[in-house]
Amino acid sequence: MAFDQLRLSAEQLRRRCDPAELTFSSTAELSPLDTVIGQDRALRAISFGIQIKSDGYHMYALGPEGTGKTTTIRKFLEHDATDKPVPEDWLYVNNFRNPDQPRALRLPAGRGRQFRDDMDQLVDELKAEVPQAFEGPDYQQEQERLEQEFGKRSKSLFQQLERKAERRGFALLQTPHGMLMAPVINGDLLTPEELSRLQESQRAQIEQSQEALEQETRETMRQVQHLQREGRERARELDRQVVGFVVGHHIDDLKERYGEFPEVVAFLQEARDFLMKNVPAFKRISHVRQASPEQQAALTALPGAEQPSFDEYRVNLVVDNSETHGAPIVLERNPTVPNLVGRIDHQGQFGALVTNFRLLKCGALHKANGGYLMVDAIDVLTRPMAWDFLKRALKNREVVIEGVGEGLGAFSTRTLQPEPIPLELKVILVGDPRVYYLLLQMDSDFQELFKVKVDFNTDMAWQGNAAYDYGRFIATVCREEGLRHFSPSGVASIMEHSARLVGHRNKVATKFGDVSDMVRQSSYWAGINGHGLVQAEDVERAMDEQNYRANRIEERIREMVEEGTILIDTEGQMVGQINGLSVMPLGDFAFGRPSRITARTHVGMGGLTNIDREANLGGPIHNKGALILAGYLGGKYARDVPLALSASIVFEQLYEGVEGDSASSAELYALLSSLSRLPLRQDLAVTGSVNQKGEIQAIGGVNEKIEGFFDVCRVKGLSGTQGVIIPRANLKHLMLARRVVEAVEAGQFHIYRVDAVDEGIALLTGREAGRVRPDGTYPEGTVNALVQQTILGLAEKVKEFGARTEERHLPA
Question: Structure pTM?
């Protein structure tokens, strides 16, 4: 086999971005990026979700962290919201007939603030003008006239009663206990003793007259009481006239000003009616104002004698869109129930907590009404009851201010029951794909409410104007954050770094959070290096420093390999032993780690034993890969004979769990080496998945795996023959670090690609694998022939051993 055909050139290991192809000398020359690149699918979904007006078409934006979901959606919404109408203002006003149920009023944007100020001015003017009217001379004169009129009428009634009493021989006396009738003879009042000495007939006549007078007295008293009631009513009517005169023109002016809003006019009329009934409060202000300072202190110190505020006639502007341009866009970062649907505040009063309509506070749903509300999915799902309240508001298309306990029915009473506000908005949940699919599976309401899937991609094609668009993105970040601008070489280096992030030579990352981090770090190192523009070397320094901050564990493992604590051979040949490659993820950092894989075979019927699986260290995918090996061996070498062997395979010195099938080809090579007794090259490491047909399949983390073995070879000494065997299907994923590419260019390291097991085993053993002949055998001396011979030999030994055992147990 011509192994050179399997060896990759340096150009195949990393795609380069040529700075000479960039038509600018600095990103400062580029216009800011006003569009979102690489997210056509997501943008079309957002546009659809915004335009469709049917119920339930709220959006869920899903994608990994750092794809710029929130920023992208916000910029798109800001562009769309500009042309949308500004939503209405919302106010809560007092329900005079039922204060526990405040009413909601809507007004055009800006009119709500105006109405609030008008009502505040009305209250202030009434508090000043009405008491002043009670203190005026006209009021005082009219009040005195009424008092004189009813006093005169009452006096006339008593005078008439007195004359009647005199004609009948009685005198009318005023006592602390009321009016008394006393008989009079010859101008003198009779004492009880004198009355008792009179004749019976005379005494009876006096008592009869007294009874008649008492009846007339009672009638007179009724007339007097009627006059007093009439007087009080006339006085109240006078007070109402005074209040009405002052209140009327103010209310009428407001009704004329807001005449186009029937609900406002109705509220003003109701406020007027109740103001007319609230005369004592105005008079209380007047009395306090006319009192001396000492009297004022005494009056206001009395319980319940505090000055009236008339706050019940003010309004509570809960949503003010007077300064809003277009549709509102609200990003709620702490979506608790109060922050979403609002809350009812309380204040202390005489040792108790009280509330009123002016203590109603709006939530994010109120602020976003008529526009867009963005919420992080994890945040709203982890806040107690927030998800349920949000769903209820969207299903009912109205938002009700209430507490968590009240919403759950945990309390039988409540302080306020505000009128619901109609809801018309789009909600965009931003979250992880796993959360989306869990909600889709577990919550039927989610399927009905969030029907628009906004799926953000993590990469885009590296073609056309991709590098130029990246340059504009870098220019935007530099301008917004005051960073150093990039030279063409710096942009080219960022492009290559972006391709490494997604592990694909034909794609670049759209996780612009990670890209922005590298732009910031590169700008920093450009300043340290004294560069006015960020150069490629600054980007490389930033990447090296970032890796250095994170790779302590990787360096420690390399040290253990160099010291011989971890056994890894990078030279020579060994039977049944090979270097496999895996990736160790450590949060935000991952690195490739070589591991020694060994295989042993012997006579028996135990089949293939994966020691890691038996020790419960193997994950299901890794165990699946190991089971595939038995299928490959039986299908290729034992079609006509039983696969009579016992074999064991293990990752040596691997004490944590192992998952994935990327080492299945390496395990198979070790197994074939043990069966054929042909040694494998230890200067080569292997990665790749294998199927039962012997095809080598693509794996993940190919760059990290290659770089991991290269770094081990470098610390142990590069011999010029070392390298890595990878699947051909992974060629498009190669974006190796520059140190590896430079070593390949210098002939110090090699990368080989294979399509099938036969190519890999030939490369590892230096001997042809051998093609199967029509009779099912392989050419003499080839790897496959040696393996087949061993398997046949093992089957014969098992057969012979079985026959001898049977003979020993036959009866003599």
Answer: 0.78
